[in-house]
Structures are given as structure tokens and as C-alpha cells.
Amino acid sequence: MEADFVIVGAGSAGCAMACRLSESGASVLVVEHGGSDAGPFIQMPGALSFPMNMPRYDWGYSSEPEPNLGGRRMATPRGKVIGGSSSINGMVYVRGHARDFDTWAEMGARGWGFADVLPYFKRMEQWHHGGHGGDPGWRGSDGPLHVSRGRRDNPLVRAFVEAGVQAGYPATDDYNGRQQEGFGPMEATIFNGRRWSAANAYLKPALKRPNCHLLRALACRVVIEEGRAVGVEIERGGQRRIVRARREVILAASSINSPKLLMLSGIGPAAHLAEHGITPLVDRPGVGENLQDHLELYVQMAATQPISLFRYWNLLGKAYVGARWLFTGTGPGASNQFESAAFIRSRAGIEYPDIQYHFLPIAVRYDGRAAAEGHGFQAHVGPMRSASRGTVTLRSDDPRAAPVIRFNYMSQEQDWEEFRTCIRLTREIFAQPAFAPFAGHEIQPGKAVQSDEDLNAVIRDHVESAYHPCGTARMGAADDPWAVVDPECRVIGVDRLRLADSSVFPQITNGNLNAPSIMVGEKAADHILGRGPLPAENAEAWINPTWRTSQR
What we know:
This protein is α/β, with parallel strands linked by helices and 552 residues long. The chain is built from twelve helices and 25 strands. It has helices at 12-23, 40-43, 98-106, 114-124, 155-166, 198-207, 254-264, 270-275, 315-328, 413-430, 452-462, 514-528, and strands at 2-8, 28-32, 61-62, 75-76, 125-128, 145-149, 182-185, 187-188, 190-191, 194-195, 212-216, 218-225, 228-236, 239-251, 267-268, 282-283, 295-303, 340-344, 355-360, 376-383, 391-393, 404-406, 439-444, 464-465, 497-499. The longest helix has 18 residues, at 413-430.
């Protein structure tokens, strides 16, 4: 079996590339270990807590014991299904701040500044703003990826934005437009009440073409002959075989599995590969390094009125939500319930936001467990640009073995200071007049938790991953010894091999990673086809004019 392009991974970036490469007329074979995304657990937005806890849809990875988090092993879900993590995530849509991409360019990813990537964000989007204003000139109107806003019917959702303004922060109509900083509506990849994953947006239309095919198989390694990638060794039904690429092999297997595949193929830190009996073909010490993620904490409040989603938190309520969604595509099941958001700066002297909020009108864990007994609400809050870095390494030379994931969370003193600031700023927001009719006692961390020492204990025991791993095969100049891919996503040291997914991020972006991951796939496709990038658009993002002297 062969094709012009063999793509490993039908995730966010892989689906985008499969669509763009196949529409050019080239033949494309997508290798994906996971299966179908059919069924309500994935397609119903309100059921988001289920698929990431199902072995059928998730690789089931977890970190090694994290020394700064009391030895906890942190869940590291990655999608094992068409659409990848866009089929199991929270559907939140955040491009990132313009300064994130300008920083990429400064770090050696030339051609990936905000002016360069904005045309790709616009090309991929079909933005449904629902008459809420925003910045149409910054947004796309006819792309394959539907981006919408929730109805914001719940008074708690509206109170969050009002409280932010009362606390002195700006409001923003569109955090994905000119002004990220402030409080406003949150956006999601939801369309007509259904999850609009990269599979729905890109892969399914591509598979209707005669030149695009999906192969369910485990990718074991890239086959490299005389310094060129010529195919991929796969395992299917207990049998190993090679699928060949006439033009290029493209890895898009996630920031966990892409570096693992490079190392299994002999590309990575030579000494580490030799430890596992793998012949080093290209010594790239940056493979598996630079691992980054976002952590978040839930600041939870009891509600004094029965207006939260807790009314559905029983067997009858869940049956009602499911049935209504199944038969009408409407109701609570048609939303991910993250309908208000905020991006703020932690202190004066920070140029652009470094704290993100997701607001949820129920007190419950992201995985759907441990609902507070009664009505409540919560803000998911966390710093955006931790200086902590981790690694992904091999456990063995067996492609079926999970890699060794060490995030090294909270390894910098600044991490602790930033998280304490997050909690204190959140308490101030919840104490504003907008929440006065609704706010009861503080469930987590709890009113008694005030000192730095006590806050640190809560952070250590209760922070959770926001599931945004990235950076493990970072993009940079070809002469940068720690770069893994060049600015055209070519793996340095191997011909005809590219890598395009969140692995290539030099630095984590400001917010959820699905949007920039898809953007990477969109832009990489143009590089792969030799088209040259879309013309740059010099749109000036809003920066708070008092940022040097004021926190808000």
C-alpha cells in the first residue's frame, strides 16, 4: 500500500492536512490507531467528561509521579479516535494571543509570527458570533471549522462577566479578535448542537474523495533509507507491514506520540536511543524535550439559589438532558457549558494576559466526578506561561509501550507565586456585587485557607492538568541544536519527513491548544505542497496601554 503522502495521526493537525493535501489532487493515506467517533458520548457537547475517561477513545497515558505535587501521577489524556483530542476535549476555542506567535518567530520559528498565522486562523474558521459583536475583520466566515458561542442563559454565566467588570477589568466582545484581555463570551467548536471536531470539519469531507484513505493501524516507526523517509512500519491484526510514501511522511500523532515515534525511528538523543537498543540515525537532543502544559485549579463556590446545573446531576436529570439532545439537538446537552471566559494579567509589568478563566455554572470536577452536594459554580483558573519544562522519553523499544512522561510541574518558585495570585484574584471577583445574590460559602480552597503555606498545600493537592501538552519537537532555525523541525515543519536531518502538531510549538500559547494545533496543520499543508504561505496580515492586537504600571 502506498500514497503520495502518509500522515500518522488523525488528530487536529492531521485531519486538517489530510483535507488540504487531498484537495490538491495528491493521494493521502492517514494511519490512525483509534476508531470511529460515532455515538453520543463524543458528539453530544454536554457529555464531554465521558470520552476522555474511556479506553476506547483515549490512550490512557499518565505522568510519572510528580515530585512537586506530592508524587501524584497526572492524567494525560490523548485522543485515540478520528479527530484525536478534538474528539475528546472540552471544545473550547482559543487562538492564543498575538504576542504568543510573535514570540515563536523570535525563538527561531520565522514565518510564524501573528501576521503570518492570522490568515490561517481566518481560513479555517466559520465564525458564528450570534450577533454578539466582535471583530469580523479578524475572523473567518467560510472555513470548515464551525466556531460558535453558547446561549449564556444561566444568570451565573452572565454574573461572571459583570463581576469581572466590577472588579476593574475590561470587557471584551471577542477574545479571539483584536482584544483578548478582559471578560466576555467563550467560544467553542460546536455546530447545531454537536461537537465540531477536526474529524467532522476536515477528515470526513476528505474521505469522500477517491484519493484520501484511512487505515486503522498502530504506527511503529518511520522507515528511513539513505537519510530519507520512505514509509511507515505499521502493525495491524498482529502483522507488521510497511506503507510507503511516494513524496513525504508526515507525523501528526500528538505531542506525546510524535516524539515517541521519532525516537523509535532512530531520531532523537543518541545516548537515550542506544539505551533501548535503537540505532541512532540522527542525533537530535531536542526530541522529547521542552514539554509544557497548563495547570488549573477549580475555585468553587456554593450557590444560594437553585440555578446551577446541579438540577440535572441525577439519573432523571441526565436522562432528560440526553433524550432532549438526542431528539432535538438542543438543551443543556448542546453546550459544553463553558460559556464565559476571561484573560487577565497577574500583575503590572506583564504585557499581555498570563491568567485564563473558564467559568462553569456547577461545582464539579472536569472528569465529571465529585460534584459538590448542592448548587454551586466554579472558575477554572491557571497561569498561562509557566517556566517549568518536562520530557517525553521511551520506556522501551516496543511501540505498544507507553512513553515516560515527566512534566516537572511547579518546579519553579514563580509557579507557586502565580497560582496563589490566581486564587486571590478569583476570590476578589467572586466577592463583587454581581455575585451577591448567588454566592454562598467557598467550597474550594475554603475560607480558612489564606496563608501562602496553606494555599500552596491546596495547590499541591488539587491542581489538575488542563490537558494542553505541547512543545516536545519544537520548531526553530535549522542550525539550532535543540530544534527538531525547521520553519517549514521539516524534521531536521531527515529528508521527506515532516512533523506538524502541537509538538512543534516553541512556547505554549495563551489558552486551549486545539485552535493553534489545527492552524499548524493548515499552514504546514501549504509548506508541504510548496505553495508558499498566505500573505501576511498586519493586524494590531490591543495591548492595555497601562500595562507597565497597572494590573488592570
